[in-house]
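Suppose you are handed only these lines of text.
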Amino acid sequence: MKIAIMGAMREEIEPILESVGSYTSSDHAGNTFYECRYEGHDLIIAYSKIGKVFSAITASVMIERFGAEKLLFSGVAGGISKELKIGDLVMASALCQHDVDITAFGHPYGFIPEGSVMVDADRSLIDLAKEVARSMGVDVKEGIIATGDQFVASAERKHWIEATFKADALEMEGASVACVCANFGVPFFILRAISDSADGDAGMDFDTFLQSSAKVSARFILEMVKRLGN
Ligand code: ADE
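From them, the structure of the protein bound to adenine can be written out as follows.
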């Protein structure tokens, strides 16, 4: 199977590239795409750069140009739920865009006409992740991930996102990747390890924990790849 693994930042895919052995690379649409064989699969690996626009480009290219049949996202997030501490894993059951606002026309926050506020992730990939978590002896919380083109470093904004979308974690790419995959009919899975709590300390915590949390997520994603059937 051709599986796409993407992150937003170099730090999020470096631990994956370090684990897969040899790979080739090619440039397209402003990104570098890495290809290799791993555990019986063809992998296409890339980081998009931060935010909804760049991540949508990268996901689209992985699907349309490289023929990805499933897409797994690995990276870090700001925690909203009190259950999520730095280094904990959260997988998206559904994703929304917290910065979409056409409420002036009577629509709810996050809604785009002919779309939906929430995009559901693939249930069989979530079930696989639960099995992988059991066998690794790690906890992965399932929850709503809210995405926006903002690094959230304010308790007030974080609580607004929690109250409006019942979100458990927030980041800057998941919902745009989800939209791309849903529109192309490609099953997707979004995994994040917590790097900060999206409050006043978020900037400092992010810098401190980006690398270690990115590794936690990458390691789990590679275990999932090993368990994916062909
Ligand atoms: N990714 C990790 N932490 C984040 C935060 N606080 N805001 C947005 N994206 C993030």
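What can we learn from it? The helical segments are 10-19, 52-64, 123-136, 155-165, 174-184, 202-227. The beta strands are 2-7, 24-28, 31-38, 41-47, 70-79, 89-97, 119-120, 140-147, 169-171, 188-196.
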